[in-house]
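Re-run with default settings, no changes from the original entry. Doing this only to confirm the output is reproducible before filing.
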Amino acid sequence: MIKEARRLFLSGAFIIFSPHRLGCFIVAGVVLWATIPAYAAPEDSTVKLTVQPNLCVLGEGENVCRDRVRVNWRADHNRSLCLYEQGEPDPLDCWQQSRSGSHTSMLETESDVQFQLIELSGQQVVASSAFEVIADAKRYRRRRRNPWSFF
């Protein structure tokens, strides 16, 4: 057994896994693990888009929602963006090298409207939010039992 241990020691197996070297490997691994995300994602590109109000409830007999809608956006760094209503070719508003923006307009619609922020350089959608239209379909139906019945 001692001869086997001496042979492994001389071959370098114990030198690689000695406590001193193992500690160095662990430290190097932690340092590499901590620095990899910094190179993988150069900066956080979060863009938040909000629509206020974001919901319209149609009452009985109504079929069109008319409301003043304010669309706001905020980013972590300067962006060049345009606000579009989905399906429309022309932008509602555009901003050059800004961190935030706001657009207010009167909306008249029968169905949901999707708003999208699109990057000017890459023409990719960076954020979207919806204005939802809900029909209040309250139907009056006959009760299953009479109000004077206990069972």
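The mean pLDDT is 75. The beta strands are 47-52, 55-58, 65-85, 93-109, 113-119, 125-135.
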